[in-house]
Amino acid sequence: MQFPHSLGLLYSAFTYYCGFRVNSGEYKLMGLAPYGEPVYVDKILDKLINVHDDGSFDLDMSYFDYAVGDRMTNSKFDKLFGGPARLSDSEVSQKEMDLARSIQVVTEEIVLKIAKHLYTLVPSKNLCLAGGVALNCVANGRLLRDGPYENIWIQPAAGDAGGALGAALVALAPLF
């Protein structure tokens, strides 16, 4: 996927909108998801993201400001979900729980689609994951249960900081 179309940034946009700090509060959003209902799944899929059969996707960037501004979302996103982002010091409501559940469901479905497509290209019983979305343990559990892989390994520095490890492995690849 090419920036700005990113599953991690989509998840971070919901982290921001639900009043948590981007790049550190995503685990809170994931933890909040079981307390909600997936009532916004259709709205997310109809308005924010176009998911293709192979798991690739396009975001409707008119709802997001992270590529051009200092906020993750904008007034169009606010209007879609019925108001401004939750202030971090305000009480978490059922709305945030439902948003968390909805984006978690969408994330899991996309991860599963990508993995199934990858398996058709490179069949293996093993899958290695890296990147910020690989830190979503709920999605990883779903992938292990419902996906085509017997073994999943998540690189320990799975967030953006792990990019250096990937670059080193690419540089070493010709030696093997």
Share of β-strand residues? 5-15%
Written as H for each helix and E for each strand, in order along the chain, the element string is HHHEEHHEHEH
Number of distinct beta strands: 4
Specify the CATH class.
Alpha Beta
Which architecture does the CATH hierarchy give at level 2?
2-Layer Sandwich
- Main-sheet strand order equals 1-2
CATH superfamily: ATPase, nucleotide binding domain
Number of domains: 1
Low-confidence stretches: none
- CATH topology tier name: Nucleotidyltransferase, domain 5
Q: Quick summary of this structure?
A:
This protein has 176 residues and is mainly α.
Describe it.
The protein is mainly alpha-helical and 176 residues long. Helix 1 runs antiparallel to helix 5 and helix 5 crosses helix 6. Strand 1 and strand 2 form a beta hairpin. The chain is globular, with a radius of gyration of 17 Å. The strands form 2 sheets. The protein has a two-stranded antiparallel ribbon with strand order 1-2. Strands 3-4 form a two-stranded parallel ribbon. The mean pLDDT is 94. It has a single domain, classed as Nucleotidyltransferase, domain 5 (2-Layer Sandwich), CATH 3.30.420.40. The chain has 7 helices and 4 strands.
